[in-house]
Structures are given as structure tokens and as C-alpha cells.
Design brief:
heterodimer, A: about 290 residues, alpha/beta, Rossmann fold, seven-stranded mixed β-sheet, 7 helices, globular, B: about 260 residues, six-stranded mixed β-sheet, four-stranded antiparallel β-sheet, 11 helices, lyase (chain B), PhnK (chain B), ABC_transporter-like_ATP-bd (chain B), P-loop_NTPase (chain B)
Chain lengths: ~290, ~260
């Protein structure tokens, strides 16, 4: 069903062409932040206006859309963006990672491996990895242009000096295609290795900051580190309480005020698929109770 | 090696020819020419508004001259016009072979990151990628500028003025530059701290064989640190010569006035 007063996928065709040109440029220069004329969207900044514009520009009638927020398909942000495109583009939506052709994400990369032909669209709040050390935009642009990235290591140095290890746990800086240093949006660093040599196209949209950048399929993505403090992933040392997965990224959920807590997969689709396949965790007494009234 | 360095010392490190800078009608700097040799310390003295700082900015390629040129002998021994260097080369020069000590340490330091990272930044910028080695080098340099190594993880905003200035010097010298520009390095410090800083700078300059260009209005600083003095007035160099010669036997009336205005000890 296409809402009659809107163009397909909400944005007008001229805007989509402008965004597509920015996307093409971003793909041609992996990791480079391409400025674009970000539009007002019918949602506040910070809710994924950049990601929504990128999705709107690449969506076709045959696409199958999945939207996740912190790995979850059923939080407010994910549901409202999914509904938005269901209404304005009439595309099929799904929660399955493997069935989707376009996945818009906030802060996670799905656990299930992505395959060729898929597009992962990230919502990015602050695209500039050097921002917190160098507040001047003119200066950071020059630093990117001249590949002066010593400052990025200053941040990692500070982490080690203060905490004894690289304490940056999300938005962990990466070097794309051995050239541009990039902020992978606030995904946990657990997900960083998934970006390297990924068969899917990865697009990043920052609506407020008006930047689009990209990692083309099968591109080298290296997390920055020191020789004597190499990059490590981080994960709570527990299996998922619902599906028992020992290799997925976990959310910590406080269950009472006596210190009780449980760890569950942050990727709800991954967790549900595993439960459906018969995997159980310590607390999965009624795994499909919620699913009953979908 | 020795032949090369002997060759180096015979040739100027930095050559300024007919440098001028106009701001509209105002000629901030007029027809300045000189050569600076490796290991030589040159002081530029003069009152406020005489064009000292403008000249320093011209020499360090932070400002484009209205006329004239500055050439610098690169590490490969070739004398090159700074205006012909690409921006990348110029910036590389600035953070490896040159140092720049600002009057206000807040301009030369990252006030919110630790002292260790401040000193290590230049090393990381030239590709050092080993935390332990960066930290060791930073500690060594903090010791050399007489900062307690126990404060390596403190941010310079917790440091006193004198410590900040010494930290700024360490940050600049860590890549072993051959030329250091200093803009009023002792400005705003009290007399005893100044004395300590001057003593430290004099030792470092002679130990490392640094060439330095020091802008100052304080003739005592010039006398203590420099081999040669240039006196500026109204954008022109009015007198130049060996430090003791200029300060003990000034020729120009203005220099005589400057020298006589120092209170006798």
C-alpha cells in the first residue's frame, strides 16, 4: 500500500538522485565522508534521519527491509522506521537477517553472516572519528586529506594510560582500505571484525552532520591498535540466558533490585532463530510466549 | 657521516631573502634578509608592534609573505623554498624537523589529554605504534625537562605555568628537530621560574645542537640564550650582530635606548 500523498519511499526523486550520487562517491572512495544535502525527515535528529534517507534512496519495490535498533527488531525506533517504509514504499518487511535485502541498523551488525547482494545501512550520530580531540572541522578535513592520523592513536594512548587497556568499547576507529580512518558509528567493538572483507555493501548516513560514507563489499577494514596492546573484542563472559549462545553479543538486563541480572543476545532475530531450532538457555522456560501474539 | 655533517654546518639551515608582509597600508615587516646556520641561536628583539611575531610566522611558513622568500635545508641537504613545498610536506616538516614553542602553552599543548600523550603525539604522527616505547620516550623527555615522571598521566591543565612551558618544549623536541621557533617562551612566568626555564633551554640547545629563533622583548633572555641578535623597529631590522656586541656596544639610537632601559642589577 502506497500512501497516496507521498512519493515512493517518502523522498522526492530529485532528493534521491542527490543522495544516490553521494552514495556512489562514497563507494568510490571507501571510508571518505561525502557531504550531502540532508533533508528534514518526519522524525527528530538522533532517531536515524541519516539512515532513513540512505534507505529511502536505495529502496526498490522488490526489496525486503529489516530494521534493527541495538540488535532488536522490536524497539520503538525499529518498529516506527519499519512501519514508515511499509507505509510510504509498500515494501515487504521482515525480521530475518538472511531474508532481508536492505537492513537498516542502529548500533549493531547482525550475528548471522551477511551475504552478497545485501546492503547494511547504519545510522550515524557523529561521523567524525577525530572530533573529540580536534574540534575544528577545517582541521579534521585537512587531516583526512593528508592522512594525518597520529591523533587517533593519542586517544587510544589516553585509554591505556588511564585504564590499562584500550577502553573504547564502541565507535572504535577503523582504517578502511588502508587509507581513511572511519568511525563505524556506535557499534560495539565486538562487531568491528564483521566489517572486514564483508560480502555486503555497508552504507553510513549521518543526517544531522550531513555526511554519507561507505565500505564497499570485500574491503579491508582494520581496527586501530598498538603493537603491544592489540585490538580485542569484548563480550560478557556468559551464555545467552534464552538461547544459550556462547558467541553472540549480549545485553545485560537487570531483573530485580537485589543484584539479579540476566544476559541475553542483543540480536533478537538470532536468538529467536536459535530457540526455534531447539537451543535453550538457563532462563528460557517459555521461549515463544511473546511470539504468540504477533 | 662526519663529512656530511661538516658539510651541513658550513651551509645555512634557513635563508630569508627580502621578506615583507603588508596588512593593507600597514607594513608589518619590511625587507628582512638573513641566514641561520645549524646550531645557531638567533634572538629577534624589539618592542611590541615592531613586527617580531609577524616575522616568526613568516619564517615558520604559517603566513605567506607579501614579498621575498624563505628557504630551508631539508634533511636530504637540499635547500628548498618553503612556498614551493606542498601542504603535506610543510606540515610534516612542522611536526618532525621543526618545533614551535608558543608564548601561551594552551596553544601548543592539548590541554585535556595527559602529558604523556602530549609528548607522544608527534611520535604517533610519524608512525610509532608501540605503546610501551612511546611511553618510555615520553618519560625520558619529562625527566629531561625536569617534570616529575609521576605526573605523566596528568593533563597539562593541572600543571603550573612553568611546567606547562617545559612540557611544551618536551613535546616539540621529542622528534629531534633541527630548528625550533620560540615566541616569547618566558612570557608570563615569574622571575625564578624564568631563570630555571632559561637554564634548561640553554642546556638543551647546546646538548642537542639545535638551531633556534627566539622572539623576545626581554634582552636578558637574548643575552642568556642567543649567539646573534636582530633588533627590529617598525617592521625593519635596524641592527644585527653578535649578542654581546649588540648589547654591550649598541650602535643605533633605538638599540641604545632599549639597552639603557634595563634596570641595573
Amino acid at each position: 500500500m502506497n500512501a497516496p500523498t507521498y512519493n515512493f519511499a517518502y523522498l522526492d526523486e530529485q532528493t534521491k538522485r542527490m543522495i544516490r550520487r553521494a552514495i556512489l562517491k562514497a563507494i568510490a572512495i571507501p571510508g571518505y565522508q561525502v557531504p550531502f544535502a540532508s533533508r528534514e525527515m518526519p522524525m527528530p535528529y538522533g532517531w536515524g534521519t541519516g539512515g532513513v534517507q540512505v534507505t529511502a534512496a536505495i529502496l526498490g519495490p522488490q526489496d525486503v527491509l529489516k530494521v534493527i535498533d541495538q540488535g532488536s527488531d522490536d524497539t520503538t525506533n525499529a518498529i516506527s522506521i519499519r512501519k514508515f517504509f511499509g507505509k510510504t514504499a509498500g515494501v515487504e518487511t521482515t525480521t530475518s537477517t538472511t531474508d532481508a535485502t536492505v537492513i537498516q541498523t542502529r548500533h549493531r551488525i547482525p550475528e548471522a553472516p551477511l551475504h552478497a547482494g545485501q546492503v547494511l545501512v547504519y545510522q550515524v550520530p557523529i561521523p567524525e572519528p577525530l572530533r573529540f580531540l580536534e574540534p575544528r572541522e577545517t582541521e579534521t578535513r585537512r587531516m583526512h586529506a593528508l592522512a594525518e592520523y597520529g591523533l587517533m592513536h593519542v586517544k587510544l594512548y589516553e585509554d591505556i594510560a588511564r585504564f590499562g587497556h584500550i577502553a573504547t568499547a564502541y565507535a572504535y576507529p577503523v582504517k578502511v582500505n588502508a587509507r581513511y580512518v572511519m568511525d563505524p558509528s556506535p557499534t560495539p567493538k565486538f562487531d568491528n571484525p564483521k566489517m572486514d572483507n564483508c560480502p555486503a555493501l555497508q552504507l553510513f548516513g549521518a543526517g544531522r552532520e550531513k555526511r554519507i560514507y561507505a565500505i564497499p563489499p570485500y574491503t579491508t577494514v582494520v581496527s586501530l591498535d598498538f603493537e603491544d596492546h592489540p585490538f580485542t573484542r569484548y563480550r560478557f563472559d556468559a551464555p545467552c540466558a534464552l538461547c544459550g549462545a556462547a558467541d553472540s553479543y549480549l545485553d545485560e538486563i537487570v531483573t530485580d533490585d537485589k543484584g539479579g541480572r540476566m544476559f541475553v543476545c542483543s540480536d533478537t532475530d538470532f536468538c529467536e532463530q536459535r530457540q526455534a531450532a531447539g537451543h535453550h538457555g538457563a532462563l528460557s522456560a517459555a521461549p515463544h510466549k511473546e511470539k504468540a501474539h504477533v | 657521516m662526519s663529512e656530511l655533517s661538516r658539510l651541513d654546518n658550513d651551509q645555512p639551515l634557513l635563508v630569508a631573502e627580502g621578506l615583507a608582509k603588508n596588512y593593507g597600508q600597514l607594513a608589518a615587516c619590511r625587507d628582512v634578509s638573513f641566514s641561520l646556520y645549524p646550531g645557531e641561536v638567533l634572538a629577534i628583539v624589539g618592542e611590541s608592534g615592531s613586527g617580531k611575531s609577524t616575522l616568526l610566522q613568516l619564517l615558520s611558513a604559517q603566513l605567506a609573505p607579501s614579498a621575498g622568500c624563505v628557504s630551508y635545508r631539508m634533511r636530504d641537504g637540499v635547500l628548498r623554498d618553503l612556498a614551493d613545498l606542498g601542504e603535506a610536506e610543510r606540515r610534516f616538516l612542522f611536526r618532525t624537523d621543526w618545533g614551535y614553542v608558543h608564548q601561551d602553552p594552551a596553544q601548543g599543548l592539548r590541554m585535556a589529554v595527559s602529558a604523556g600523550a602530549n609528548v607522544g603525539e608527534r611520535l604517533m604522527a610519524v608512525g610509532w605504534n608501540h605503546y610501551g616505547r612511546i611511553r618510555d620516550t615520553a618519560s625520558t623527555w619529562l625527566e629531561r625537562v625536569e617534570i616529575d615522571v609521576g605526573r605523566i598521566d596528568d593533563a597539562p591543565k593541572t600543571y603550573s605555568g612553568g611546567m606547562r612551558q617545559r612540557l611544551q618544549i618536551a613535546r616539540n623536541l621529542v622528534t629531534e628537530p633541527r630548528l625550533v621557533f620560540m615566541d616569547e617562551p618566558t612570557g608570563g612566568l615569574d622571575v625564578s621560574v624564568q631563570a630555571r626555564l632559561l637554564d634548561l633551554m640553554r642546556n638543551l640547545v647546546s646538548e642537542l645542537g639545535l638551531a633556534a629563533i627566539i622572539v623576545t622583548h626581554d634582552l636578558a633572555v637574548a643575552r642568556l640564550l642567543s649567539h646573534r641578535v636582530m633588533v627590529m623597529k617598525g617592521g625593519r631590522v635596524i641592527e644585527t650582530g653578535l649578542t654581546d656586541q649588540v648589547l654591550d656596544d649598541p650602535r643605533e639610537p633605538y638599540t641604545q635606548l632599549l639597552v639603557s632601559s634595563i634596570l641595573p642589577p
